[in-house]
Amino acid sequence: MMFCPRGWLVCLSVLISACSLVTDFPHKLPTRDTEKDAAVDELDAQLPPEPMAETRRDARVEPASDARLDARDGCLGDARCGQAVVECVVGSGKGCDPGAVCADEGGLRRCVACVEDDDCAAVEGKPFCEGNACVQCRRGAMLASAADDVGCGLDVRAPICGPDNTCVGCDDSMEDRRCPGSLVCSPGLGCGGCNADAPDLGANGCSTPSAPGCRQVNGLTQCQPCTANQDCRFAEGKGYCVVQTGTCSTRCDPAAPPANNGCTSPSAAFCKAASSVPGGVDCAPCSAGDCSAGSFCATSGQRAGTCVGCRADEDCAPNPSAPLCDLASQQCRARTMNDCKAPTPYLSSAGTCVACTQDRHCSASAPTCNAMTNLCEARCISDARCRDAHPDTRRCNRAMTACVQCNASTECPVLATPLCSAGSCVPCTDYPGMPGAQNAACSAKTARARCFRSGSNAGLCGQCDPTDDVIDCTDGSCNASLLVCE
Fold first, then answer.
1. What would the pLDDT profile of 428-457 be if each residue is shown by its tens digit?
2. What is the DSSP letter of 281?
3. R_g (Cα) of the chain, nearest Å
4. How far apart are CA 110 and CA 314, in angstroms?
5. Is the separation of the CB atoms in 418 and 427 below 8 Å?
6. Phi and psi for 129 in degrees, rounded to 5?
7. Parallel, antiparallel, or unpaired: how do β-strands 461-462 and 450-451 relate?
8. How far apart are CA 314 and CA 324, in angstroms?
9. What residues contact residue 127 under an 8 Å CB cut-off, 6+ apart?
10. pLDDT tens digits, one per residue of 61-90
11. Residue 221 and residue 193: Cα distance in Å, rounded?
């Protein structure tokens, strides 16, 4: 079938000429029919001029305005020209799928997602056309900077357009991911007015003591007033936060106790409001109510304006261990032994009245004097310590943590109290248990001895009792003093 780019009249003329050539061939060569050629020329003059082919890269190819398309413009032949069927790739027999457009790349046609930004208007979240694809953002000409990036400004956590045309977080260590303009990168929080992760003033982008802290407010990092000394650590010598004003102060921290508020002089140990000082606070002397419990604000003398232990003896009266006021040091202390009364009757080397300074100051129930606390404790260390402190309780019972008379009956030398019970030497009749147990205890101390329960020797252990009618000694006689057979 013959392809007719110029319409049916032109085609008819050409066809008639062709038929004449076929009829006369080979008898004669074709000759120009002047009248027919004039008619064709007249028809050609009435047709609009053909558009010149575009040569720019990625040019969009639009369908022709009528059905008169040749093969280059996408017509599939004379029989289908009337249907205005347009193909993108020549010879494919079809156009692009819905949502795609036909691009001409130097004469090579193909279906792509987009050629210009308008083609991406219906693609959610990807309004830019880059490389024939709809993308989230567009990188500017300055590839090493985000200053001319487009499309990521609404998301402070991912304000940079990355190489793959997606919005990514900022990173000051990477040249192409630094925040644009004067914005500062906070890793994880994005670009903002300051860097919340920076440890000090200046490095975090906050340069004024009145707003040294970097915190996120309404999704954006901003310089804020200080809330703690942490915010003022490197504030050019203004290392203390005045929480009431949110400002870093050169001098002190009014919220901290005197030992940690930055005031180093005992005569000006308190941080107080001072309108004449930058930051509004300054170190000042004490006043009534400033000193802690048990101390007093001196109003005169060398220590005026400082907290002292006492101003007179009456300030020390509640403390029996240091009942007097030393006016030189203005601290409570005991001057001599005569000033010390029970329950702290002894004078320590520090000049205070204490419960003990030696073991002999302690009772049998609490036999040991603790050298650190000067208190008697219910514990013993050795028999020697018990003998030194209490001649009557010469043994250390570690289980009872006390000095005792005995730990065994063999340590009871007195005939009248021959047996040891609960740390004390007792008559055998007071020994716990029945008569059989008492006899056994006596026999354990002296072979064949028993406990006498009556007569003048009642409560004693012995082998024999000379006052008894029954003589226990089968050989020899009974020693009346020792109650043993001889």
1. 999 999 999 999 999 999 888 999 988 889
2. E
3. 57
4. 105
5. yes
6. -105, 115
7. antiparallel
8. 8
9. 117, 120, 121, 134, 151
10. 554 333 223 333 444 444 444 445 578 888
11. 5
